[in-house]
Amino acid sequence: MLSQRQEKLLNILISQYINNAEPVSSKALVKSGPFSLSSATLRHEMSNLEKAGYLTHLHTSSGRVPTTKAYRLYVDNVMAAPGIYVPEATKQKIHKAITDASDDPEELNKVVANVVAALSDNMVFTNIQDTDYFYKTGLSSLFELPEFKEFDKIFGVASVFEHFEKIFNDMEREFFGIPTGDVVVYVGGENPIKKIKDETVIMVRYPLSAGKTGSMTVIGPARMDYEKNIGLMRCVVEEMKKRVVNIKN
């Protein structure tokens, strides 16, 4: 069980790592301002968090990086919050894209994937339940991120992008048992896709026209902006629900 101070420290460290992609040192935490603690005290707390499995360090740096265990706690806190802030401009982009799209489920899924990929800079896949339809986009944006500069990483995500239809079919039975609208997050090592075992997979289902159900999968680094991406996917679900209601009326 983490103390309130440890959880605050962990949340700030994760936020800094998400933003900067650099291991976080005690000095960096002191400079960030929210702590009235010495660098030595923060180093001690970071050491305790490392012993508890929430942090690890790279051999090339004195700073720490979050583990899957840390990200899971962070994501659980984000998911449990009463509401995730989504900028009004982002809401408007999603609203306009979905409102302006045609009623064709495939075209609508394509529009949804493109707008989320553009806003998240991650890979996005969309599918229509009980069909062979898939749309995928965002691979090039992923390659711009610092995590994907090594050949093994590039090969892994490119292979998943190329063969996602088969991968999704293997996951489909479990996923489509999840209620429509619920965002599901597989953090880093939790994700069921072995070729990208260090990345994060986020999935959600939403209603389409003609009684069909669509799904979206976002894949990115474990360092992804969870609050932003979960907010985007929840916003998409709400807009799709509104669209279906308007069509029925």
Short description:
By secondary structure, this protein is an alpha+beta fold. The protein is built from ten helices and seven strands.
Highlighted features:
alpha+beta, 7 strands, single chain, 52% helix, 10 helices, Beta-Lactamase, two-stranded antiparallel sheet, 5-stranded antiparallel β-sheet, 15% strand, 249 residues, Arc Repressor Mutant, subunit A, globular
Could you walk me through the main structural features you see in this protein, from its secondary elements to its overall organization?
The protein is of the alpha+beta class. The protein is built from ten helices and seven strands. It has helices at residues 4-20, 26-32, 39-51, 68-80, 88-100, 105-120, 139-142, 151-162, 164-175, 226-248, and strands spanning 55-57, 64-66, 123-128, 134-137, 184-186, 199-207, 213-221. It has a five-stranded antiparallel β-sheet, with helices on both faces. A hairpin with a 6-residue loop joins β1 and β2. α2 (26-32) crosses α3 (39-51), α5 (88-100) packs parallel to α10 (226-248) and α6 packs antiparallel against α10. The longest helix has 23 residues, at 226-248. It is globular.
Topology of helices and strands:
Elements: H1 4-20, H2 26-32, H3 39-51, E1 55-57, E2 64-66, H4 68-80, H5 88-100, H6 105-120, E3 123-128, E4 134-137, H7 139-142, H8 151-162, H9 164-175, E5 184-186, E6 199-207, E7 213-221, H10 226-248
Antiparallel strand pairs: 1-2, 3-4, 3-7, 5-6, 6-7
Keywords: Repressor, Stress response, Transcription, Transcription regulation
InterPro entries: GAF-like_dom_sf (IPR029016), HrcA (IPR002571), HrcA_C (IPR021153), WH-like_DNA-bd_sf (IPR036388), WH_DNA-bd_sf (IPR036390)
Family: Belongs to the HrcA family.
